[in-house]
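queue> holo job accepted (magnesium ion)
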Amino acid sequence: MSSKGDLASAILDSASTAIILVNRDLRIKYLNPAAEQMLGVSMLHAARAQLGRIIEKSSIVLKRVQDDIVAGRSFNQSEVLIVSKSGEHTVDVMVNRFEREGEEPLALVEMYEVNGRRRISNEIHQHSQQKAARFLIRELAHEIKNPLSGLRGAAQLLERELNEDQKEYTRIIIEQSDRLKNLVNRLLGPQHAEKRQFSSVHEILEKVLKLTAISLPDNIKIKRDYDPSLPDVYIAPEQIYQVFLNIVKNAVEAIGQREDGLITLKTRAAFKVNIRGSVQRLMVEVHVTDNGPGIPDDIKDTVFYPMVSRKEGGHGLGLAIAQTIIDEHSGKIECVSWSGHTDFIISLPVEKTPQDVA
Ligand SMILES: Nc1ncnc2c1ncn2[C@@H]1O[C@H](COP(=O)(O)OP(=O)(O)OP(=O)(O)O)[C@@H](O)[C@H]1O
Ligand SMILES: [Mg+2]
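queue> job finished
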């Protein structure tokens, strides 16, 4: 007959729920075998390692785990995406404070893998909604563009007939039509199909930094964390340049006048990436991270939609354009953000996709 302790450890060993104990610095104190499997590390390797180093893309949850250990609260969260050495997992997370007399308080983190299909179908649904919105906006932009040039032309003709004082009005019409034309052109997005080629993501990032440096305020520093061993990506370089430029520009604007602004550009290889249901063996992942105020809560779910902006004078197009371009590359763009931290993650292909080869 086994003792109570033996029985408890046998249950933990055979449970299919991943169970992890961490302290307030998120240092791992215990992992059961299901957690070892999910995180792709052994207890031996993980002992005293930081949970944040083992799982990525779930920083919001990690932050909550930390806050809740301190405050003694518990919390549940459904369908959290975590990425570990063993790949991507969608899990329901449950966190409870775990305390034994005379020992530091810990968090008992339970993760239960949910059927990934639900998350993917949500992703596909959201993606097709965004595509429909972008289509509508493009159609609308076309409709505006044609009469606009007629309007501008007519104002120019009229200008010739008017005296200097009256010309002020036609100039306003011309100026405003030009403004509208710029907006419409941005709404229409890239006009010509650019040829794809194998390109270095670092060269493109450096080009973006060169342009950004011209008007970068002194309070913002740029940090590079490149993996020089990465393969080239198969992309349309000018379009991907536009994507990074939009995102870096947003980061600069978000930091604004804040002291000690920092933008980090990090590149890494990513394995087994799920792109709307199909798994890519290898991709290059670019992180653009800033320590600005974070994406406002009320637009977190719609930040990639066109016309969503919380900026004075912003058109809400930068990210919508970025997403259109990344979609056309069969890549992925995601964002993780909270106050003081915003991370845009762009995954790009390293191989020709079947339609490119054809
Ligand atoms: N790094 C960031 N930090 C905080 N908020 C951000 C960040 N990037 C984007 N946002 C928020 O997302 C909104 C949408 O960004 P997007 O680039 O699509 O449009 P915009 O910057 O407002 O206008 P445009 O790019 O057309 O000039 C921004 O208005 C801002 O509120
Ligand atoms: Mg922008």
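queue> Residues 305 and 320 are 5 Å apart (CA to CA).
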